[in-house]
Amino acid sequence: YLSDAVNLGVKHAAYNICIDDMITTKKQKNASQGISYRYNGTTYWFNRGIVEAIDNTLDAYKNKNIIVSAILLLRWRDDLSYLIPAAARAPGHGYYALNTGEAKARKHWEAVFTFLAQRYTPNKRIANWILGNEVNNYGSYHYTGSTSLDNNVKLYVNAYRLAYIAIRSVYAKARIYISLDQVWTYLVANSHTSKQFLDKFADYWSSYGNLGNFNIAFHPYPAPLEDPAFWTNSRGLVSDSINTPCITMSNLSILTNYVKQKWGSNTRIILSEQGFTSNRYGVNVP
Q1: What residues contact residue 3 under an 8 Å CB cut-off, 6+ apart?
Q2: Quick check: 106 and 158 in contact, CB under 8 A?
Q3: What SS3 state is found at 28?
Q4: To 10 degrees, what angle do helices 48-63 and 103-120 make?
Q5: Are 236 and 245 contacting, i.e. CB atoms less than 8 angstroms apart?
Q6: Region 239-247 average pLDDT
Q7: What is the pLDDT of residues 154-190, one digit of tens each?
């Protein structure tokens, strides 16, 4: 979509990097199909074709002065199941939480994040790093195998801390972001609200000491999703209260004011995903 982006004057792009694609299979651990990477005494292998495709895409955006935010994702792969928490090791979900509680997985994740940072941060091909997708959604987009808010936040904050330290060990000014959806206080199936997840995350993050600011990648989709007129409140899902069920483009100041008051203006917010439909509840909008 580079030509579309250039024609539209786009200055920022979000780019998915699926780690399960990047890591070689056993048969690909050779110089022609893989890239070897030595980290803390262990050699790890990355898929040459996938990495070079990422290189080419990021170079193309950089050459057009488009700033890239990379979204780091993990999907199911049988031979990589050890990278997923034990309770979540079941295929059939969109994206998975990261296992940092077991030594083998933790070391592999450190190698992955350091490899990415060394390859893409010094040359400014990636400006922002977003860990996961809508991580308050434990059913589909950040599968944990658990419904516990405390457990799920602990899993994520430990992964975030690992990525934060690894990436910033390469480039100290790197920005790492939490991905949250628009359901601010509205409880939906297989999901925590983004507000309760964010608050709990911040509590755990502060317990690690003064590591620095976390950042937020927010998805202010319309509420309901089927209503493109995001400035309306046809079903009572949007208000100007701190307890609004959802945060959309129409009441975004609820989020920005809340974050500034609680954690200061150095906590950055980017809008990394949003979309609108041309139908309203399945009917064409004239």
Answers
A1: none
A2: no
A3: helix
A4: 40
A5: yes
A6: 95
A7: 999 999 999 999 999 999 999 999 999 999 999 999 9
